[in-house]
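COMPLEX REQUEST
Ligand: 26R
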Amino acid sequence: PVQIEDDRTGLSVETLKRAFADNLFYIQGKNADIATLNDYYMALAYTVRDRLLHRWLGTIKAQLKPKVKVVYYLSAEFLMGPHLGNNLINLGIYDQVRQAIQESGLNLDELIAQEEEPGLGNGGLGRLAACYLDSLAALEIPAIGYGLRYEFGIFDQEIRDGWQVEITDKWLRYGNPWEIARPEATVEVKLGGHTEAFVDGAGRYRVRWIPGRTIVGVPYDTPVLGFKNNTANTLRLWKAEAPESFDFQAFNLGDYYGAVNAKMYSENISKVLYPNDEPMQGRELRLEQQFFFVSCSLQDIIRRHLYVGGKLENLDKNAAIQLNDTHPSIGIAELMRLLVDEHNVDWDTAWQITQDTFAYTNHTLLPEALERWPLSLFGSLLPRHLEIIFEINRRFLQEVSAKFPGDTGRLARLSLIQEGPEKFVRMAHLASAGSHAINGVAALHSELLKRDVLRDFYELSPEKFSNKTNGVTPRRWIMLSNPELAFLISESIGDGWIKNLGELRELERFANDKEFQSRWRQIKLNNKTNLTEYIRKRTGLVVDPHSLFDIQVKRIHEYKRQHLNVLYIITLYNRLKQNPELEITPRTFIFGGKAAPGYFMAKLIIKLINSVAAVVNSDPDVRGRLKVVFLPDYNVTFGQRVYPAAELSEQISTAGKEASGTGNMKFSMNGALTIGTLDGANVEIREEAGEENFFLFGLTTEEVYALKARGYNPWDYYNGNPALRQVIDQLASGVFSPGEAHLFEPLVDHLIHRDEYLLLADYQSYVECQDRVGEAYRDQEHWTRMSILNSARMGKFSSDRAIREYCEDIWGAVAVDVALEE
Ligand code: 26R
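STATUS: Structure written out below.
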């Protein structure tokens, strides 16, 4: 019999071409005469989506079997990056589709580049959530990611006159082919109002919450494919809408515009992603967002649990709920409310279920980033939750008293409520008390958590604590970003590394192989040349692909010390000015990253980079040996271009400040060497790569503490170091800000008077280390060997390894077979 491939599932090139043309006509309503590039992208996206639906429906079915444990990953941010290329890789149809598109007279790379990335996150925390969803699917673990469907994601960045300008991110403008709305699964969320006590039919004392307003959450689902398996998990994002009844009520009273206004107010909740590093104060809408998506998600989880016939007492057997930082930690109080108030469960049972179900990951030690909500704000938005938190706290402190009698200092330190003229709810304490597991995101960070931020919780419940070093997905961050390198690796050691990154170790035997080395170098050069072209297009700057590509891309923050990097650039510049004949390794310094719109110092650092670039790039004495580039609008898409082209990765935060870092891992996997402090995951990257393959500098965490304890005075470093002094004086006197002598005064003042992040203390060590880097680069063979060894030894930093650890130690989740759904 003749076999005819289904147009929606067939994978032959012929079928793909036909399906693509069909979707262009019937979904986009265009033909080749009038189709735009975006129409072609959409047609292809739908062609790919058709081919994953059997897996998606199969996975949903498999998750709804009794006894299956589902991981629920609650996160205010998911920085997924573009879907198309990734889905092609996971479906294993990249090559067929490339050919089909080519035979249709188009270019696959151009269609992939057409996708507007969903920037629903700020940086590390949101991208980690995305890598974890990828690995959960790769490992066939039933999982749902829950978050917010922000209408505007992280702002787009433009640079005007060297300053950052923020542009709204209209990512949904041309439609989103990857999501499916599920209005039938809408849930209601209450806000504001007051509570009332009453006695129920059984004579029990109960509380009911009379809300001031109600909104509804509409779920939008996006499939998350596993790598070449049948699993397609779900990312469920909630959109806030006004309940229909609201409109009708007002309409009947004749207040049509009032009703529309209320509708707009409701929809505000999922309107925009908040940038981090923005002052916490008074951000009521942020608390509304957090409660909104958490309440929707918990109601959804309970509904699913009851649907499969589960008993609420057994929720923890079917559900593991992970809190990605404290942003969703209101979930602890909300689950208690749902169980006690709405489902009639007694307090003690409810508390046991809650603790057994929740686990909490901390992502930062910075005191200003620890979430605390003013009691007044909290109480007016969530009156019932405040009561519940008081009751959790009362019982919790009773337990503490029993364990540490008479220790009132400890009670005050552990309390969920921070006392003082203004009282606050401490969200990290709520998360810690209400979870059975608490983890940090790198070995050092987890130690510091136990020693500082959560010390009292550690002394109270040491068994809750563990470390789960972050990881990143090799599918997006090697295969998709660096296809040539992926090809070389697979050709040399087979393709098992994609699922089992530890296998990269087998590359070690090629580290000294001349032929392999030269191919390795050639690929790096190709990637650098691509980036060179991109830099020229975006900034007009011409850079030399044979120079050392030295890259720092990440959010702009004082603790990350982009300005320390700048101090070195100026130092090099001064050396060249003093001796224009000096032999130096030609370098291209590339920066990228966004500053929070309200973070003045961070914005000034961007201006500083651009100002130094303007002077250095145009000085004839430099003769092109140094180039400084600030590439605007750093995001996932741009990261995919940058990591493969990097030779030196800048990971230079003050020791003890960067929880983990994940960019550091992406660089290293792609063959960049790291210059870094002993901070976050750098410690473990160096351990794996070997200390001889890592450029280490700077104070250790212990030294930072000790220096601060004995009184740090940046002046001493300024006065004691002529080169440093010259750089600071130049910044202060306007050498890099012609006509605006005082422009960088706030930065300079802060550095010489306070220098919270110890740039001046680490300056000399950094300069010497950078000089060693420059020297090392001259021996290309040795450099290449180090580069190969870095990639070969990064197996530990696969998010697959991280997710396996979470599954075994925290979630108790196991792989589930998925049968394709007809
Ligand atoms: C409360 C508010 C102001 C806020 C502050 C900071 C909101 C969000 C953040 C972002 C933090 C939590 C974050 O992104 N942390 C990063 O998490 C990464 C993943 O674990 C780490 O790699 C990275 O080191 C850490 O900064």
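REMARKS: Residues 514-539 form the longest helix (26 residues). The chain has three domains: 1-65+83-116, 66-82+117-468, 475-804.
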